[in-house]
Amino acid sequence: MGYRPTRMLLAYRRTGGLFSMLTLAAVSVATAALTVAVAVTVLIVTLTIAAAVLFTRAVLTRSWRGTVPPATLWPHETIEATVVNPTDSSEEGHVLRVGCDKG
Fold it and tell me: How many distinct structural domains can be found in the chain?
């Protein structure tokens, strides 16, 4: 009975290579999809808030138009004016000022 070595088969699997590349690709695609989903959600919320603000502003502006009185005209005040001919005004030299001592 002598020493007889037994055969052992060692089996191992290399981790990495194609499997790790596929995993990395899947994680990258999932990250990109999640980023796009968050961006679309933020865009929708922003547009909804902007539309609500514009709609509210338009509605309130219309309702306030009836409550604000129009500008009053003052018929008791008049403005006196004299038509000036540009060629004549340069020859006269001085313009008379009403209510001013510099005349």
Answer: 1
Q: Is 92 part of any domain?
A: no
Percentage helix, strand, coil for the chain under 3-state DSSP, each rounded to 5: 55, 0, 45
DSSP string, the chain: ----PPP--------STHHHHHHHHHHHHHHHHHHHHHHHHHHHHHHHHHHHHHHHHHHHHHHHHTTSPPPPP-TT---------HHHHHHH-----TT-TT-
Residue with tokens 């009836």: 66
Whether 94 shows a pLDDT value over 60: the answer reads no
Give the range of the structural domain holding residue 30, as residue numbers without chain letter: 18-73
For residue 42, tell me if it sits in a domain. yes
How far is the C-alpha of 56 from the C-alpha of 61, rounded, in Å? 8
Answer with the residue of higher pLDDT: 48 or 67: 48
Assigned domain for 93 exists: no
Q: Tell me the pTM.
A: 0.44
Residue 7 lies in a domain: no
